[in-house]
UniProtKB/TrEMBL annotation, chain C:
PANTHER family reported in the protein's UniProt record: DIPEPTIDE TRANSPORT SYSTEM PERMEASE PROTEIN DPPB-RELATED
Keyword Signal in annotation: no
Species assigned in the record: Prauserella alba
Subcellular location field: Cell membrane
Membrane-traversing stretches: 12-33, 102-127, 139-161, 198-220, 259-286, 306-331
Main subcellular localisation: membrane
Family: Belongs to the binding-protein-dependent transport system permease family.
Membrane topology: Multi-pass membrane protein
UniProt name for this protein: ABC transporter permease
InterPro entries: BPD_transp_1_N, MetI-like, MetI-like_sf
Keywords of the record: Cell membrane, Membrane, Transmembrane, Transmembrane helix, Transport
Amino acid sequence: MRRSKAISAMAVTAVSALVLTACGGGGGDNSDGSSADVASMAEGKAQEGDVFKLADVPEMDPVTVAIDDKFTAYNNDTADANSSYNNYVLTSVLAGPTLLDGNNKVLTNGDLMESIEVTSEDPYTVEWKIKEGAKWSDGEPWDCSDFYLSWLAHSGKAEGFNVASSTGYELIDQPECKDAQTFTAEFSQPYIDYKGLFAAGAILPAHVLEKGTGIDDITSIKPDSPKVSDVAEFWAGEWKGFDAETMPGSGPYKIKSFDRNSGRVVLDKNPEWIGAKGGPKEVTVRTIPDTQAMATALENGEIDVAASTQPDATAATTMQNLESQGVTYGSAPQLTYEHLDLNFKRIFADEAARKAFFAVVPRQQIVDKLLKGVQPDAEVLQSIVFFQGEDGYQDVYSDKAGQGAEAAEKILQEGGWKKGSDGIYAKNGERFSIEISHNENARRKQTVEIIQSAAAKAGIEVKDDQDANFLAGRVDKGDYDVALFGWSSEPFKTTQAALYSSDGGQNWQGLESKEVDKAYEQAVASTKEDEARKHYQEADKALANEYATLPLFATPSMWGFRGIDRVYMQSYNGALWNVGEWEAAE
Amino acid sequence: MEAGVESGHGKNSGGSDPEALPEARSQGRMVLRKFLRHKLAMGSVVVLALIILGSIILPLFYPHSYADASFSSYVEPSAEHPLGTTQVGKDMMAQVLRGTQFSLLIAITVAMLTTIIGVVLGALAGYLRGFTDSAISRLTDLFLIVPSIAAAAIMVRVLSGSWYVVALVLAMFAWMPIARITRAEAMSLSQREFIEAARASGAGTGRVVFKHLVPNMVGTITVNATLAVAQAVLAEAALSFIGLGVQIPDTSLGLVISENYEQMQGRPWLFFGAFTVLVLISLTINFIGDGLRDAFDPRQRKVKA
Amino acid sequence: MNLVVYILRRLAISIPILFVGSFLVFCMVAAAGDPLGELRTQPGVSQESIDQLSHQLGLDMGIVPRYFDWLGGFLTGDWGISIAQGSNMQPVFPKIMSAFEVTIQLILAAEIIALLLGVAVGVLAAVKQYTPIDYIATTMAFIFFSMPIFCVAIVLKMYGIDLNVMINDMGWDSWLGNPFLKTTSPESLSGDGFFDSIIGYIGGLLLPTLSIMFISFAAYSRFQRSSMLETMNMDYVRTAQAKGISQGRVIMRHAFRNALIPVTTLFSVNFVTVVTGAIITERVFAWNGMGSVLVEAVNKNDPNTLMGWIVVIAVAVVVANLIADLVYGILDPRIRVG
């Protein structure tokens, strides 16, 4: 927060992929810290069951929304462009078959979709049916060819797309446009998170690409066609920044103008939108990297909505104090879990050391001091796999962590550690002195300060290793004793195995556990959600028993607004997910 | 200034070093006498001395460690915590004391380094002229056009945010004005008889520069070194503010302020402690520098009279 | 004529210095770490696309060929691409230029006011030496001089908001706009009419300009005061006074003009300080100028942007020096004639 926030770096998103976050974060839960009426804003006004539709509301005057970092690209799915902040804007511009509400519930986009169904279990086949009449803002139909292009780009089967993540898409073997409104995909193995595919800005206008590359029909291009390189070049290269000609909208809004230097984006109505047509006439999205400056701008009436992923208690207080001036303050955990990863290749190969470290980390104190100002009902996170409020959430850590200095000393002594003359425990000549490594982030620095002070009382020396490059080239090499960072995800769990399985690509801490491996394998292969959930819970428990990684909290977002009836900051897609149904407050 | 230096050395031409000393000493006495009469400067010396002593002595008796984060968040000022506690629950007074130590350490290191680099290069350039002069002048120009804030930010990031790295980097980009001033003065001094005499008597470059030139520029050097301290304190604070200055475990007043400036309205005690000390340090040093300038300036007598 | 020769000579010196300086900085930036480090840790990024980027940035070349490659591009207006995450391989040139435009607006406005005000106050303090006016001016200068610029900016911002509330209470917002004073970069400088545009422009620029102005003003007024005192003690001024020429005339004709010379020097020496001040002020007021570009480039380890940034500022410093030299030449007859 404060300074480090400009620095905040990559709150990166990748469709249904776990993503390392430098700063932002989330949690899947509807118990937010704001007043009861804010909690009720998490749902769409006309949302029914699993279907979301924009409510029919009167049009309102233009609004200005501030976010932490700049919008940069219309195509958010290339590796170099991928950022949450693009998502925050594109969520109202590029429609997908599904979207998430404030409670992270996966909803079918009822304005544009007829249905999304699994039509066969073996081979696992999914059918997306698009509504007749769905159109891009330039009048061209939003149809199956757009889905097909999205698959082609994300599949990882063709080179040159430089796609941020192909999780899920790479399992699709047989994509097919049955007719203009029906897209079917046959998967090589069951994939129950199929609803995460094609969402959040993944569907770009195929007709624009066809025109730009001279291809008649994109569905005729296979990953091994010679022309695929033209497609890749256009897809990865031509949809950066903004150009009104080639970047129409498919959601209720389209981009009207974009100032690259300041990151300011102006959205106006998509004239071809077939859903409800209310909401603000225009939406200006601005970048204010300093959270306190954002709160001040709201106070001074320069912006109508302040939406930040960087919880800062002072800015939160400023906004809370503006209640008398008509400002509503909200805060909710995002789908990011802040945690401490212990490196098994160093001092923490010793189990007693891991247990003792778990015992001294004062998680409740960290949450009380750093989060309560932002989100009064913030809680310690007790699971790595699930967020509070998610089905399957269970407390598997509270009996393993935070017992205090005395307990830690006892564990160490039993484990063969002896207190040295300097007051620090040592074993086999190695002092219990560790570094907690993290990127530049004021909240993380504060977290370490609190742990430092508590660990010192148990004869454990903790050093703060703040390194701007930590997430950029160190963490993946396992170059740390303890890593403090966040993982952010959509509410789909498939990719988690990569983090904690013995041979997982992002298992940087050197964890090897047969129980964990087995549980993840079974979960990923499950065809039913209940079954998968059961295995994920087993994985959660097995992980906790290893004392490998200590969850701290789901990082809250915070937002404030004035003059609008309801605004809820969605953990993954930001405040604009339902901008089309905002109304002027009376 | 030059007039003063000249009067101190008029009789000295051709004299040997032992003779130069008593002269310098009597001139020094005169400067000191004038400085002691400068009320604002003297008051500043007292305040600054108190700050320095306080930052060294107080922590020895102060009950709270700067690292202890076991208190509650945002405790209001009380006898227990004179400046309250921070968000993580650290005693603010302990932070200010430690910040003061580090800020002074950085500032004095910077001042010493810049003075040494600036005086040596400036004096050599002014005395030797020719190729040395143009080489050093180009070097000065080079450092003047490289934006120091960017260079400092990159180097702090690459090397680390230890206090000595910050001090070193700040010094690297602060010696140029002193070098220029010294060069100009060395040029005019080296025209003087006593320098020519020293050179004629076979003294080498090093000896002429350090035994004859530099002692005669003591006024300019002292004044500029003093002002460099004040500038270093502020430069460090500026770097810290954009998050590219000193990093923990080291600290500084700039860091303490920039971590807490948001509290200016809500919990002013968290802001104003460190802020007041910082401004006092830089203000008193500026006043002292001003007093020294007057004291070294012979014309001041006339003006005051 | 001589002035032209002098300027050409200065330029002839400056260009090799820029060349050497840019090479040194290039090495420093190159040593700052792997610009693609962050990308490498990301799931799903193929080795192929990293190699491709690496080649595009010339990371597969040695430092010297890489420098000349960069320099060649730089001189022809191709400043490379920005590779920081999310920046989307945006070309550096337009990015830096639009940021520079923002910053230069702030600096120019602030410097002009600071110069005028500083010189005026300095002259006044010198002429009225040891009077209350002098003491007030001196105290103010010392306080601003000793204050970190971000503190000035933050205080101004705080009072700016209060002032807006007052403006609204008085009903002046109907023609000043609501809010009149902006605490962040103004929405857009275009208004409905000429008057509205002017008001909007002033309201947006006022607070940040003032905070940069105060710091410069302190230095200028101090400097002007002491150089004014010095000239007023010079023989020719005393002679003029002795001849019975009126006080005002002596001051304006003789003392003032000569006393301006050192301030001109200060302007060029001060330029880098002012840029630094602007960077910090921009940060407080959330302007998207050179400040935010720098902090982002440093933190995201973005070599082309850093190089572009540094060279643009270095060239600006050279130009500021040239301007100072020109003014110097106009003010000081000795240089003009001989």
